[in-house]
Amino acid sequence: MVESRTSLANISGAVVLAGAGKMGSALLTGWLARGLDPKRLVVIEPYPSDDIRPLADRGIRLNPAAEKISDASALVLAVKPQTFGDAAPALRLLVRSSTLVVSIMAGTTIAMLDMACGGSIVRAMPNTPAAIGRGITVAVAATSVNDKQRAMADALLRATGAVEWIDDEALMDAVTAVSGSGPAYVFLLAEELARAGVSAGLPADLAAKLARETVAGSGELLHRSDLDAATLRRNVTSPGGTTAAALDILMGEQGMKELMTRAVVAATKRSQELAKS
Ligand SMILES: NC(=O)C1=CN([C@@H]2O[C@H](COP(=O)(O)OP(=O)(O)OC[C@H]3O[C@@H](n4cnc5c(N)ncnc54)[C@H](O)[C@@H]3O)[C@@H](O)[C@H]2O)C=CC1
Ligand SMILES: O=C(O)[C@@H]1CCC=N1
């Protein structure tokens, strides 16, 4: 694959990040860790956090005037879809036809991005484990994106974890529902496991620690194992034992299957709605 050959250190021109909130900051951390020269980075963020501000000492340009950014080779859009309309007029001043525009905004289509700011567009959906280099991003490129731009997008996204390229943009709503929003479902599982532990009589701090380590350790086991999730689940389940008793509830009617299906349908629908707003 051509994409993974480009290193961040080889990028010429500036990489402009618009929006250094939760996801933008995670990308920024990954880029710096993977060797992107801070002097190549421009951050546009009206409310820079205490983590972002000190990066100016490393050479990152924070909120320069638009006319001072004449060298943008990539613009990464990490603002909320709802604020993009207001942000776009200023951002489009940075975009030439050769500028790679990578958007991570949920429900914001390539057609919408093309209308709002132009450029060579890659639409991507990362997730928050990106903050520790363990994210998964799905990306789709507009037909105008050339191999070099696609390789640059791949390098920028791969700095925070795995990248899957798809050809069918229509899949992005379901991708958003599964992997973009997915970490929240796993964290909810940790919350509810702890809460149920307290209901079963455990002290709150012990229940929280057991739930946290169980979710984290199980995730790591799934990550490292060659076995699939169903096999790992069966490996915990002794016939007639405690796990089987719990799974009778979780896998019964109105259980996880039903709940997860409804949750993913709701998130997919919301992503589709954002594309119409
Ligand atoms: N949080 C998540 O798990 C994921 C978020 N996304 C997408 O990432 C984008 C950002 O989400 P979060 O980081 O969660 O939101 P956030 O609210 O933490 O970050 C958005 C940032 O944009 C800044 N901003 C507002 N107006 C701006 C402007 N005109 N120019 C530049 N920056 C501006 C805000 O001050 C804020 O820091 C959204 O479009 C979301 O759909 C995608 C995948 C996962
Ligand atoms: O909740 C959201 O809309 C964003 C997109 C995926 C995760 N967070």
UniProtKB/TrEMBL annotation:
Fetch the InterPro entries from UniProt.
6-PGluconate_DH-like_C_sf, NAD(P)-bd_dom_sf, P5C_Rdtase_cat_N, P5CR_dimer, Pyrroline-COOH_reductase
Question: A GO molecular function for this record?
Answer: pyrroline-5-carboxylate reductase activity
What keywords appear on the UniProt entry? Amino-acid biosynthesis, Cytoplasm, NADP, Oxidoreductase, Proline biosynthesis
Tell me the organism: Nitrobacter winogradskyi (Nitrobacter agilis)
What is the recorded function of this protein according to its Swiss-Prot or TrEMBL entry? Catalyzes the reduction of 1-pyrroline-5-carboxylate (PCA) to L-proline.
The residue ranges of the Pyrroline-5-carboxylate reductase catalytic N-terminal domain are: 17-107
Q: Which GO terms describe its cellular component?
A: cytoplasm
Gene Ontology BP, a term: L-proline biosynthetic process
* Protein's pathway: Amino-acid biosynthesis; L-proline biosynthesis; L-proline from L-glutamate 5-semialdehyde: step 1/1
The UniProt record lists the EC number as 1.5.1.2
Which Gene3D superfamilies does the UniProt record give? NAD(P)-binding Rossmann-like Domain (3.40.50.720), ProC C-terminal domain-like (1.10.3730.10)
Give every Pyrroline-5-carboxylate reductase dimerisation domain span: 169-274
Catalysed transformations (reactions): L-proline + NAD(+) = (S)-1-pyrroline-5-carboxylate + NADH + 2 H(+); L-proline + NADP(+) = (S)-1-pyrroline-5-carboxylate + NADPH + 2 H(+)
User: What is the name of the gene encoding this protein?
Assistant: proC
Known Pfam families for this protein?
A: F420_oxidored, P5CR_dimer
* Binding residues annotated for NADP(+), in chain numbering: 78-81
- Asked if the record carries the keyword Oxidoreductase, the reply is yes
Name of the molecule in the record: Pyrroline-5-carboxylate reductase
Q: Which domain of life is it from?
A: Bacteria
- Kindly report, in one word, the top-level EC class recorded for this enzyme: oxidoreductase
Which family does the entry's similarity section mention?
Answer: Belongs to the pyrroline-5-carboxylate reductase family.
Where does this one sit in the cell? Answer: Cytoplasm
**PANTHER family in UniProt:** PYRROLINE-5-CARBOXYLATE REDUCTASE, PYRROLINE-5-CARBOXYLATE REDUCTASE 3
- Does the UniProt entry include the keyword Cytoplasm? yes
